[in-house]
Amino acid sequence: MKQVKLLIGFLTLCVFITANASVAPTDNIASFSLSVINNQNISNKVSYLSLKDSSTLPPSQLDQLDTWLHTLTSHQSTSVLGDKYVVAFEIYNDTQLTEWFIYPYGSVVQSIEILCFSIDNPVSYVKSGHGLKNQQDFHYGNKIAISPGQRKTLLMIFESEYFFAPIKILVKPHVQAEQLFQSENVILLISLGMCLALGIYNLFIFFSTRNKQYLTYAIATLAYAFGWAAVFGVPEYVGLNSSEHWLMPAYIIGALFTSLFNIQFLRLEESAPKTAKTLKIIALFATLSLPFAFYSQGVGLYLASLFTSIACILGLYSGVRSWMSGYSPAKYFVFALLSVVLPNMVGNLMNLGVLPGLNINIYLLGLIGNSLDSLLLAFALAAQLRLLTIQNIELTASLENTVQERTFELRKSNYQLEQTNSDLIEASNTKGRFLATMSHEIRTPLTSIIGYADGILLGDIDKAEQERVTKIIAENGNHLLSVINDILDISKIEANKLDFESIPTPLFSILAQIESVVGKRARDKGLAFHLEYQYPLPAHIKTDPTRLKQILFNLTNNAIKFTEQGYVGLSVSLVDNRLQIQVKDSGEGITEQQQEHLFQPFTQADSSINRRFGGTGLGLSISRRLANGLGGDIKVHSSPRKGSTFTLNIDLSVVQDSPWINNVGEIWQSTPTKSVKRTALPNFVGNKVLLADDHPNNRELISILLKRMNITVTEVENGKQVLETIFYQKFDLILLDIHMPQMDGTEALKQIRAAGNYTPVIALTANNMKHEIEHYMRLGFSDHLAKPISRHHFITKLSFYLNKQGEIDSPLHQGDMLRLIKDYQLDLSEQVVNLEQALKQSDLTIISEIAHRIRGSAGSFGFDIIGNKFADIEHCALQDDEISVAYELPKIIALTKLCIDLPGVDIAQGIVKHHNSAKQFLDAIFDLVKQSQQTLIDLSAALDNNEINSALVHLYKFFPASFDCALVKSEPAFQALEDMIKQGKPESHEYYPHLDIIRAHLAELNEALQPSLTYDI
Questions:
Q1: Residue 158, helix vs strand vs coil
Q2: Among 158-162, 468-472, 1001-1005, whose mean pLDDT is lowest?
């Protein structure tokens, strides 16, 4: 039995050898089984024969093929400048699949002819290649049908005036090939769309800023995008003329502008002039070589590979050096070049024949690398913009230091800014959130643009629909432009740094302020408002009262904004030893899906919110970040049409010995009330103070305060006069303004100390940021006083440096303050004229100087609202933010005019009567004018009906307020009306003239007042 099995096995082996010998391929025709070569590159396993010098045509029969192939010579290597060669191989289908795809890839080829021979069927012929209508979009090759157990011989003829890389040949199942091509097509179109969007966006920035590096970046990005589109045949696919002649010129143009961008972004002309010169030479040669690239794409391949490689290598080298030397935006630049160097250098070395062909789609990989390069370079530009902004701030604060000191201060300030997240939302309106904003705001319109573009390119949208779709793309493009304008608007961009305090805070006073303001707004809208306490609660806690109020105002204002009817309420309690404040409303409510994005910057619940209510969507994002800074968080619970509840939880730190409140009656016993008792001033008789300030009104105010305390005061207005005065007089204390003409305070201090004078010197300045104060202390100042001067802090500082001789009951007289305010009004009028002239000339230097002057003095004379606004203008002007200055300054000038010139009003007297606050004074006039129309109607009707008591009641509704608001033009008419009404029933001809005077004056005020100013700015 064993012998029989051996015999059968031997005979089977002989039959197999004989059968294979009868069909064995020749040396020129390799044979493969599909199960073995499935998804494998067989380009290195076949023989190539040259057709360059052959004029014979391929046979039409299989049995003639081998003979024809033997007439051809061997093809050793492919010429980049044009070639024609052939390859033949046999495939045997030992699988169950019948549909296969012959996929030649890895190079750009004009023509690929595929002839399929079989024993029983006539030869089939198909043609593929660059610029032709291919069976698969953006890919060469053809589908073939081969039954299981069947053999077919394939003859492939490659002919082109240019070959960009060695050809690779894959045989794949048709289904797998289609899936691969669809995935690659999606990646291809997304990458091209990204490059197109970034290029166009940076062109917009160039037209706005005229910064050339945005132009070179945009042109390089668009050139590379067009080059890759031409490689994949995208222009021909969408019906445009052949892009064949633009294959390599596009890359050379990209290399040209990449070289220029590298010089500009890395500032190589200053830091590495030799490298800059080399890149300029590359750009020059690239420009000169363009005609050769148009003439021959093969020559262009060598040139483009050379220029792009040199530009990338030099750029990478320079970027690493810049990064290592401390230029932080260079890190994005390095990563960007690495993303393009790795795939494209491999491709270039393959093109030059240094590396063998790899079994990957190197062109798609190169396109992805270029897309990442463009995106990361956009990040690099944004990082550069942020760095330049910070540098401008720091360099302005340290102009008198040496180069080494400025560099040290800048780096230290940068580190502090990165570590502590300063609150520039209220103070500086910087552009630190540019990257996050761009990513979020641009994504939405880009989704429609890219989606519809993909639909057109992939054929999903009929030609009849393409016009409508194109309009949609255009509309989204315009929306994208609008978003970009919003991003560039300084008033809608938040900063990244916040400072938090932890000081004793009366909890119920904070809540009472919220109730007073928010309750009125709710009732004005017709909403009920309630404040609930869940006792016990501590009377005093340690927290940051400013941040806590900001959070509560944001949450309650949102509740009122989105509630049309019903109620808004607050509930205060302790939960798990934390302070919990809930803001509830009966408004529209929010879905769970909308809640997920509610706290993201520049996000609102849905797109209709902005159209109905306006806003940028920053409020809740800022509130949550403030809550995090207070050691807590904000949560939301809401359902559509059932209202919303926002819950604020923060750390609870109760002040030591603070009482606990258990009912309403105890609240007022624990809440501190303001005392109206006059504060006694210390008596500093015998002390001498030198006061240096260039602002005459400031000098007069401070001088009056000092003289009230019996201090001998010597006044000067600049640093030079300080040095001259202390040369022949001795002082107990020097009050030294920082910003003065001829010689400023810092330089004066240096010379005072250099002369061996160690008299205590206090810095007077409106620059009150933490790092600025620390800088003044390092220079040698003894102490610091912030403008506007706080009397309490002022007296405290004086008490520390001067000898006290008892107390005096003599605060600043009201008459003195009235005179000072009137003098300051005249000064403000002159400054407004100067500001308007500087604004016309776009002179940011003068604007910043005037703004600093007003910022440091306005609060001292009651013009608190003016000082706060000009602090923002000074910051924008110092940053050369001309757009923000041009947008904000006219409104602030209008507000200033409102504060210093109202018809028939003694503004100085009104400010004094409203606790030396122009804001309180303006609010009072707004309310008076708002309520006056109906009151005048009621008063007139009561007089006409001889209702004397009612007329007196209506008169007293706003007569006292008009006296407090100093309506000097109407005051005699009010007084006359009061006398007439008290004397009996006046006749209409007696009271109507007085009513007409009051009515005309109030109408005149109504026209002059602009209530929106204080809220818009």
A1: strand
A2: 468-472
